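Hi everyone,

Forwarding the result from last night's run.
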Amino acid sequence: MQAETRQMRIADSILMEMDQEAETTRRLFDVIPDDKLSWRPHPKARSLGELAMHIAMTPANVAGMAELDSKEVGAPEEPEATSRAQILEVFAESLKKGKEIVNSTDDARAMAEWKLTNDGATLVAMPRIAFWRSILLNHNYHHRGQLSAYLRELDVALPSIYGPSADVNPFG
């Protein structure tokens, strides 16, 4: 008797990528110095603690936005972290919530249109899966790249992201 194979859902590929990339994000969070959370590379830039919290909060915030059929533009909450432990805790909870939301989305809803609006006028309309790919994943990688640049400026030894950094010798 052959084992029954389950067909992959659209959400499954997003969930797998969230899990894989979460490990890399945790490695970066693990090297954030608690005493540099208020540091910023430029007066107009987010502080290290604000950027880390933005990244940590993204899975739940973005998945939560995509639960709706449309989202009105609004200023996001931008708290500054008080410790690395707080960042890791917020990230763990956010990742859990984000994955629960994505996992509960069937294929028809994943392909359904999602909109960003301003005073009722549509700014962006795309399938929910495109919003997940664009903002939940790619936008988050952009900010993770910023975080690695911040850490490099602070002379923090960087962990491997997609391969060795100048700080990590993969050959021993």
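The domain at 10-153 is CATH 1.20.120.450 (Four Helix Bundle (Hemerythrin (Met), subunit A)).

Cheers,
N.
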